[in-house]
Design goal:
Layout (H helix, E strand, L loop, with lengths): L11 E12 L4 E5 L4 E8 L2 E5 L2 E5 L3 E5 L5 E5 L5 E10 L10 E2 L2 H14 L6 H21 L18 H13 L6 H8 L3 H12 L3 H18 L8 H4 L5 H12 L3 H8 L8
Antiparallel strand pairs: 1-8, 2-7, 3-6, 3-8, 4-5, 4-7, 6-9
Helix pairs in contact: 1-2, 3-4, 4-5, 6-8
């Protein structure tokens, strides 16, 4: 297949930073404005974003694009803690995404995970690769927002109303019993179908397999425990269903782009990275 594309320059002229931030119960960002564009992706908790004339609620799995020069402020809901990925850049702003909360589809979320890892890397061409990843993320989100039916603000993955009762029940069991030794076979038995049928249904309706949902639920719980609990990092794996500390570390980094220690340290970072 012959392609004859005329490629324009990157929409990113300057990448300010890509950083994960955790905020405590009493945190409130005072009204501010700055010339660079900003992307906020909520990882945990909920954020109330205050914009001129209105307020938006950002839930986990959602992101918002804020145009440079826009006056804004935000805080948690009911004083609850929250954490988020913050990206600041200069360049072309995607008007279709302006000041609206959009759910981040799985493909775009994987790009964000790679962007977090690459931006923290000291390898050759990490800056160039980070700009390329952010460019891809912006274009994918713009496509997602402009597709028929995609502009509807659907909830994050684990809150979706799946078409089949079987998948709804399976995901519910994973969310409740993730600490136990769950397997696809035991899940199939609990939902009354064969393992192969359940595997196919989960993949078809969520775009992910059983193992992904189980690991994602465990890692999300680990992040909550790292935010505020009496558990040490060494105690968390057993508390969420892992028998192997190295496997927990490997899985945690695969989902977050950070080790548990790096994640815990990032939550204590106050305003040093603020725009």
């Amino acid at each position: 297949m012959e392609l004859n594309y005329k490629v324009k320059g990157s929409p990113i002229t300057e990448l300010g930073y890509v950083t994960h931030k955790g905020k405590g119960r009493s945190y409130r960002l005072k009204r501010q404005t700055h010339p660079i564009h900003e992307i906020i992706y909520v990882d945990y908790g909920k954020i109330i974003l205050e914009l001129p004339g209105r307020k938006l609620v950002l839930r986990p799995g959602y992101c918002v694009f804020i145009r440079g020069g826009t006056l804004h402020a935000f805080h948690g809901i009911a004083g609850e803690p929250f954490d988020f990925l913050n990206i600041c850049y200069k360049g072309v702003f995607p008007g279709i995404l302006e000041d609206l909360p959009f759910p981040v589809p799985s493909g775009a979320l994987e790009i964000l995970d790679r962007l977090k890892q690459e931006s923290a890397s000291k390898l050759s061409y990490s800056r160039e690769i980070s700009v390329a990843l952010l460019t891809e993320f912006i274009y994918l989100m713009s496509r997602h927002a402009g597709s028929p039916g995609k502009a509807q603000r659907s909830p994050p993955l684990n809150s979706l109303h799946y078409r089949s009762k079987i998948v709804r029940k399976a995901i519910s069991i994973v969310e409740k019993d993730f600490k136990n030794n769950l397997s696809l076979q035991s899940l199939a038995s609990a939902t009354g179908v064969s393992s192969s049928h359940l595997r196919a249904l989960i993949r078809k309706e969520t775009g992910r397999n059983f193992s992904y949902h189980l690991q994602r639920t465990r890692i999300d719980t680990a992040k909550r425990l790292l935010r505020g609990s009496s558990y040490s990092i060494g105690e968390i794996p057993e508390a969420i269903g892992y028998n192997s500390l190295p496997f927990f570390f490997k899985t945690f980094k695969r989902f977050t782009g950070m080790t548990p220690r790096e994640y815990a340290n990032s939550l204590g970072d106050p305003e040093s990275s603020s725009p």
